[in-house]
Amino acid sequence: MFPLHNHHQATFVYGPEIYEKLIPEDHILCKISKQVDFSFVNEACKDLYSQDQGRPVKYLPEIMFRSAIVQHMNDYSDRDMEEAARYNLIVKWFLGIPIEDHSYDHSILGDFRDRLGEKKWKELFFIILKQIEDAGFAKGNQSTDATHVIANIAIPGTIGLIRQGIKAIMDEIETVDPKLFEELGGRKTADKKEKLHTLKSEEKKKKLVDVVEEARAIRGKAEKLESPSVKQKIEQLNQILNENIEEENGKIQKKKEHVEDKLVSLVEKDARHGAKSDSKLFTGYKANIMKSDDGFVTNVIGTGGNTYDGNILVPLVDEKIEHSSKPQKIAGDTHYGSAENRYQMSQRGITIVAPIKEDFNPTGLYSQEKFVLDKTGVTCPAGNRTMIANENEKEGTTIFYFKKEICKQCSLKNQCTKQEGRTITIGKHHELIMEAKEYNKTQAFKDDMKERAHIEPKHAEMKRFHGMARARYWGLSKVNVQFIITAIVVNVKRLANVIDSVCYLKM
Question: What is the pTM of this model?
Answer without folding.
Answer: 0.88
